[in-house]
Amino acid sequence: MALPKHRGAMNIIFDTGVGIGVLIANIINFCTEKIDGGWGWRISLSMAAVPASILTIGAIILPDTPNSLIQKDNNLEKAKRVLQRIRGTNDVQRELDDLLKASSISKTTKDPFKKILQRKYRPQLVMAAAIPFFAQMTGINVITFYAPILFRTIGLRESSSLLSAVVIRCFNVGCTFISMFVVDKQGRRVLFMLGGIQMLATQVTIGGFMTALLGDHGGLSKASAYVVLVLICIYISGFGLSWGPLGWLVPSEIYPLEIRSAGQSITVAVSFFFCFLIGQTFLAMLCHMKAGIFFFFGGWVALMTLFIYFFLPETKNVPIEKVEQLWKEHWFWKRFVGDEVDDSSYKLDK
Question: 275 lies in a domain?
Fold first, then answer.
């Protein structure tokens, strides 16, 4: 529903909401930790019913998008009225025509999961799997899931470790806000590059710092533990600026309508699978690799930054209906998609 020039910011509101929700959860955990009688964890867990109730009520009153109205009911008049309302103008016929064209193509697709395997959709299929996989391999969930355990391991007490998790999440939410304001001006690729370099530098620094001070045994002093906390906050800032919000934004805007459901399903499934896998294996990895775990994830960050540089075209200010043209002009993907040029008058933003 968002205009191309505002689509990045509007989409990142989603990740900002997730970040704020996790921050509130961390604050609740910190505040309930001292409650006696075993009620602390019960209160913490039961509070999840509040956002669940809001989501349920919101689903009831959520309006349909113009795309949905065209696809499900073929209600062109209602779709046009909704489009005029959300655009704030009556001059929406050109965009409506693009939506109708995309919808007519999608209706010929009987099995989107089979269709996305076709050669011409190879770039979308690769991105559907690679972007959520790389987002998990930044190591972010290692920090967010196990921040209290990690900081207790490096010398902070129980309450301090929970407070550290709150501080970390504050940095993440703050940088996601920054990303929301600059993504449609600077573009996706620039933020991916900056965030990748920042995360790589901090992970290598943390790994080297902890290797030098810890070795195979011993612990960190309180001062050293706070140094690690500062470095992790810098790392979290890089993630909040780049892979956090963009890991959801970019997949949402690269699929044509006929394979959008399949592409988004693959993206979410890959993300959750590797989130689960890393969550289940991290503690064992930490015990065996120790400080080397930061070098492990740092290597993946270097690889994914190179992947973005070479294989992801810039989607800033490009209508979703026109993103296909980017693959046709890309140095690598054009061999799969073809190099025929769209006959529309739309000019891609370079």
Answer: yes
Distance separating alpha carbons of residues 27 and 46, to the nearest angstrom: 14
Distances in Å between the alpha carbon of 309 and those of 202, 317, 346? 20, 19, 25
Total structural domains within the chain: 1
Distance CA 124, CA 327 (A): 9
Whether this prediction's pTM lies above 0.70 is answered by yes
pLDDT at 273: 95
The span from the CA of 291 to the CA of 223, in Å, is: 18
**CATH code at 263?**
1.20.1250.20
pLDDT at 209: 85
How far apart CA 173 and CA 27 sit, in angstroms, is 14
Q: Report the pLDDT value the prediction gives residue 227, as an integer from 0 to 100.
A: 84
Neighbours of 284 (CB within 10 A): 9
Residue 219 pLDDT level (bands cut at 50, 70, 90): low
Residue 78 within a domain: no
Expressed as residue numbers, the domain containing 161 is 112-338
Q: pLDDT at position 218, please? A: 58
